[in-house]
């Protein structure tokens, strides 16, 4: 169970969430709305309560109508019961007495949209409204993954590693709860204020960022080792980065210098038995505007590889030239023309086979970039799951009070993907689902990278119309 070392200052009652036997005054579900905390209001104490001139109920009524009008076409696909949402928030707004409480309620309302990009943004009159004080949150020094119906430690470092917790160990219980029950509760708590575009995005979030808890929290764990022995550990949260970088472990066969770096890319030429020229590996951490030029730097090293792995896991998005990136994977002087036409581009265009790796930590522009390779016929895609499914066109809705605006998705991006359904609420769908192998995890091997390399070495990428040069 979770045991706070000391009680922390409570936020508004509607934010008081509990996990296990947590003290009521401790906030556990404190991530702000959206997987990247997309609230543009600073954390501080509440403002003065002298706000009788603001009709909060009118704001909420306007928001409910406007969101249904602009976003309602997503409701059936995302199984959103807007009548239920309307009833809940029409009632809850009656208890709102301050601008701060209004901000919190609006954030919780947007969470019901299941829109990973949704944000409450301040207008001039609301620029000084603060988010409630909350305790500092840190990671436990580990991430989790699901294999079948079991949860495993994907990797461990820092606090968790110091307790002897090892990657590949099964997580059985958190306190007295079975770990899947604990995760279900955690997802529900996070989803009260965080907007997730898909269920798989919410689950992956809970297994990574969502493991972050207030400094000083105790986490009682029951684990099973690789040898089948039961181990119990109490982890005290001290420090740790809760943001996943992507792959569980570095790829095998790296040169002694490790992965090279070009901006947001990490790449290297891997030795692989029986493959002349080796195999290339590129971790695409983000998708900045100069991504095609960064890829040029990587391909200058990898141009002679027999195949390349593009690992998009952990990609947080951005914005880039679609044709410019894909053109780097079209042989010089040629055109890729299966679904959309791409001309060769860059100084070192690569014409060999490509395998793309994804999971639900791939978001926004990362989904566009990875998805193009699959949907437009250039590469084979594998992953633990679909990508997050948060890729859309957005609009801004200003509320009558003049305090806040709502930034929300109104149309799915990449409408040609998923048989015309686009990415929002679905994600890029792998050709092949690959789960981690606990034995690989214990040996600190990334199962998905191993599978990608195997596919490239075998040379048979079924379902990919492109034929490598």
UniProtKB/TrEMBL annotation:
Q: Does the keyword Signal apply?
A: yes
Q: Entry's Gene3D superfamilies?
A: 2-enoyl-CoA Hydratase, Chain A, domain 1 (3.90.226.10), 3.30.750.44
- Tail specific protease domain sequence ranges: 251-435
Q: A single Pfam family, by name? A: Peptidase_S41
Q: A single Gene Ontology molecular function, please?
A: endopeptidase activity
Q: May I ask which residue range the UniProt record assigns to the signal sequence?
A: 1-23
Q: Name one GO cellular component term.
A: outer membrane-bounded periplasmic space
For this UniProt record, give its keywords in alphabetical order, as a comma-separated list: Signal
The alphabetized list of GO BP terms reads: proteolysis; signal transduction
Q: Look up the domain of life of the source.
A: Bacteria
Q: Which InterPro entries match?
A: ClpP/crotonase-like_dom_sf, Tail-specific_protease
Protein name in UniProt = Peptidase family S41
């Amino acid at each position: 169970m979770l045991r706070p070392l000391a009680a922390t200052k409570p936020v508004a009652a509607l934010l008081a969430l509990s996990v296990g036997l947590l003290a009521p005054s401790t906030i556990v579900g404190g991530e702000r709305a959206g997987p990247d905390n997309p609230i543009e209001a600073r954390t501080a104490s509440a403002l003065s309560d002298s706000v009788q001139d603001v009709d909060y109920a009118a704001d909420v009524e306007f928001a409910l109508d406007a969101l249904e009008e602009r976003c309602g076409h997503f409701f059936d696909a995302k199984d959103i019961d807007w009548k239920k949402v309307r009833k809940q928030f029409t009632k809850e707004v009656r208890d709102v007495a301050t601008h701060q409480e209004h901000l919190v309620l609006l954030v919780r309302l947007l969470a019901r949209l299941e829109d990973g990009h949704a944000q409450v943004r301040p207008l001039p009159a609301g620029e000084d409204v603060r988010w409630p004080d909350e305790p500092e949150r840190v990671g436990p020094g580990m991430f989790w993954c699901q294999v079948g119906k079991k949860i495993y430690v994907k990797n461990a470092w820092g606090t968790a590693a110091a307790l002897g917790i090892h990657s590949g160990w099964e997580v059985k219980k958190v306190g007295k709860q079975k770990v899947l029950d604990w995760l279900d509760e955690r997802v529900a708590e996070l989803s009260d204020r965080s907007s997730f575009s898909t269920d798989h995005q919410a689950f992956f979030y809970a297994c990574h960022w969502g493991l972050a808890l207030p400094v000083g929290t105790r986490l009682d764990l029951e684990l099973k080792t690789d040898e089948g022995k039961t181990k119990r550990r109490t982890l005290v949260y001290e420090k740790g980065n809760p943001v996943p970088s992507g792959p569980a472990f570095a790829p095998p066969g790296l040169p002694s210098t490790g992965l090279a770096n070009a901006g947001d890319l990490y790449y290297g030429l891997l030795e692989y038995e029986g493959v002349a020229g080796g195999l290339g590996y590129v971790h695409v951490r983000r998708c900045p505007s100069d991504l095609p030029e960064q890829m040029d730097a990587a391909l200058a090293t990898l141009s002679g590889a027999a195949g390349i792995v593009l690992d998009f896991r952990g990609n947080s998005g951005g914005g880039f030239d679609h044709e410019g990136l894909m053109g780097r994977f079209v042989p010089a002087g040629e055109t890729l023309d299966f679904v959309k036409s791409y001309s060769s581009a860059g100084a070192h265009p690569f014409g060999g086979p490509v395998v793309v790796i994804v999971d639900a930590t791939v978001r926004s522009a990362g989904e566009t970039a990875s998805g193009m390779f699959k949907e437009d016929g250039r590469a084979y895609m594998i992953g633990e799951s679909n990508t997050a499914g948060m890729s859309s066109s957005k609009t801004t809705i200003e509320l009558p009070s003049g305090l806040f605006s709502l930034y929300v998705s109104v149309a799915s991006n990449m409408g040609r993907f998923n048989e015309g359904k686009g990415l929002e609420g679905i994600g890029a769908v792998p050709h092949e689902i690959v789960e981690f192998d606990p034995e690989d995890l214990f040996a600190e091997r990334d199962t998905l990278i191993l599978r990608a390399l195997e596919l490239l070495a075998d040379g048979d990428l079924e379902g990919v119309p492109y034929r490598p040069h």
